[in-house]
Write a structure and sequence with these properties.
Component of the Mediator complex. It comes from Odontophorus gujanensis (marbled wood quail). Its main location: nucleus. This is Mediator of RNA polymerase II transcription subunit 20. Keywords: Activator, Nucleus, Transcription, Transcription regulation. This protein is α+β, with helices and mostly antiparallel strands. The protein folds into two domains: 4-39 and 108-201, TATA-Binding Protein (2-Layer Sandwich), CATH 3.30.310.180; 41-103, no CATH class. Helix content is 32%, strand content 34%. The chain has six helices and nine strands; from the N terminus they run E-H-E-H-E-E-E-H-E-E-E-E-H-H-H. It has helices spanning 17-31, 50-53, 90-96, 149-164, 173-178, 185-203, and strands at 4-8, 34-48, 61-67, 73-78, 83-87, 101-103, 109-118, 121-130, 133-143. Strands 1, 2, 3, 4, 5, 6, 7, 8 and 9 form a nine-stranded antiparallel β-sheet that branches. The longest helix is centred in the C-terminal third of the chain and has 19 residues, at 185-203. The relative contact order is 0.24.
């Protein structure tokens, strides 16, 4: 499974989210990248129900996520905790567990956009939305021939600099914890969870019953 870097790109001054996405896409196309379909990643927030929290346990947030790259899988992540990879029926299970976990529906966030192929790189430029409004921009870059994250970070960074310039990210924290082990889909979802939470905090959108 190829290592991927997921990062937020700031909206250019005086431009909208959509205009910035278009400018990034244009830079990629000028490099020679070709459109390669669409992608989508979504995230719903669940919090422990009041019945559990009242027993003195600390309420914990859980994020249930989907990625169009893995249409048969569903990911359940805890902040600073494990990532469970389940089949797509996990959503149905969460409905049955509503006595334990409640869905903060107002907090659903997703990133959708276009995939681009450039030589051995796959790039996904997405518009991050909460409800009806665009909240930010995500860029995911993978280096297809490699499976060890630290082996290809310099290549990834060099390529990202060619179209992201000064907004090229530093090495993702999940790369640091992998050392020489093989990169996994869960590592990508952790990066999206961190990006979505960062965008939520920037927007300072309160979520009823969580904070």
């Amino acid at each position: 499974f190829p290592p991927r870097s997921v990062t937020q790109v700031p909206v250019l001054e005086g431009k909208s989210v959509q205009q910035t996405v278009e400018m990034l896409s244009k830079k990629l196309e000028l490099l020679g990248a070709e459109k390669h379909g669409a992608f989508g990643v979504d995230c719903e927030t669940y919090h422990t129900a009041a019945a559990i929290s009242s027993q003195g346990q600390t309420g914990k947030l859980m994020y249930v996520m989907h990625n169009s790259e893995y249409p048969l899988s569903c990911f359940a992540l805890f902040e600073n905790g494990p990532c469970l990879i389940a089949d797509a029926n996990f959503d149905t299970l969460m409905v049955k567990l509503k006595g334990f976990f409640q869905n903060a529906k107002a907090n659903k966030i997703e990133s959708r956009g276009t995939r681009y192929q450039y030589c051995d790189f796959l790039v996904k430029v997405g518009t991050v939305t909460m409800g009806p409004s665009a909240r930010g921009i995500s860029v995911e870059v993978e280096y297809c021939p490699c499976v060890i994250a630290n082996d290809c970070w310099n290549l990834l960074m060099e390529f990202m600099q060619s179209f992201m310039g000064s907004h090229t990210p530093s090495i993702p924290s999940v790369f640091g914890t992998k050392h020489d082990s093989i990169y996994s889909p869960a590592d990508t979802m952790v990066q999206y969870m961190e990006l979505f939470n960062k965008i939520r905090k920037q927007q300072q959108v309160p979520v009823a019953g969580i904070r």
